[in-house]
Amino acid sequence: MPVPEFEKSMFEALLARRSVRRYKPRKVESSTINNLLEAAVRAPTALGQEPWAFVIIQDKILLKSLSDYAKPLFLSQIHQHQSKQAQHKLDLFNRPDFNIFHDANTLIVICGEKNAPFFTADCWLAAENMMLAACAMNLGSCVIGSALSAFEVPEVRTKLRIPDNYSAVAPIVIGYPDEKNIPSSRKSPVVFSCISEV
Ligand SMILES: Cc1cc2nc3c(=O)[nH]c(=O)nc-3n(C[C@H](O)[C@H](O)[C@H](O)COP(=O)(O)O)c2cc1C
């Protein structure tokens, strides 16, 4: 595969990546999607299993209906875990105009083959590869964990042709950002020990 022209080096992308929640209407080209999938499958994979497979949705009407379907499922699932702080964010999910996919027009769901011993780890590593590659190409991305319960529903799985032996692990929206990128702040790394030879 020819290497795409990246706008940022990998380390720049790592520092610049943020969850993007406002997107321009411009569709992500299929050649770009192919580059993102290529980046995803370069992730480390336990026992060389490569247990991932992808669902790609670029249909805004389908995404809106999936969002409407997922919102009450997510709220009922999260109900017992919520803190006061989370409550404020969860109020959004009761708004009919709130689209959990942030009106992006591309959703890539990374699915994992359930028999592979570390399929969730493999899929999340693929997800991060994909999000960093997206950022390096000046695309935005966001993990949409709140969509996950919907991908367990048989009718949704049938519609998206997800086989029974696969589980949806990482739903990621991708698109052209329509917001300013503000670098993230993070706590300093906690280091329990740092042991080296004397
Ligand atoms: C497992 C997981 C699930 C997430 N689910 C959502 C989600 O449903 N909706 C959303 O807008 N962001 C979601 N996020 C994004 C986080 O909110 C975001 O990564 C976090 O606030 C840190 O911000 P940053 O990605 O800009 O550094 C999720 C992130 C992870 C890792």
Description:
- This protein has a 4-stranded antiparallel β-sheet with strand order 1-2-4-3.
- The longest helix has 19 residues, at 60-78.
- It has one domain (19-42, 52-175): 3-Layer(aba) Sandwich (NADH Oxidase), CATH 3.40.109.10.
- 34% of the residues lie in helices and 14% in strands.
- The protein has helices at 10-16, 30-40, 60-78, 84-90, 119-136, 154-159, and strands at 52-57, 106-113, 140-143, 166-175.
- It contains 6 helices and 4 strands; from the N terminus they run ααβααβαβαβ.
- The N and C termini lie far apart (46 Å).
- The mean pLDDT is 94.
- The protein is an alpha+beta fold.
- The structure holds flavin mononucleotide (FMN).
- Flavin mononucleotide (FMN) is lined by residues 18-19, 21, 142-146, 184.
Summarize the structure.
34% of the residues lie in helices and 14% in strands. It is of the alpha+beta class and 198 residues long.
What structural class do you assign from the helix and strand content? alpha+beta
Small molecules in complex: flavin mononucleotide
What fraction of the residues are assigned to beta strands by DSSP? 5-15%
Low-confidence stretches: none
CATH fold-level assignment:
NADH Oxidase
Number of domains in the coordinates? 1
Q: Which percent bin holds the helix content?
A: 25-40%
Describe the global form.
globular
Fourth-level CATH superfamily: NADH Oxidase
The number of distinct helices, counting runs of at least 4 residues, comes to 6
Give the CATH level 1 class. Answer: Alpha Beta
The H/E string reads HHEHHEHEHE
The radius of gyration is 18 Å
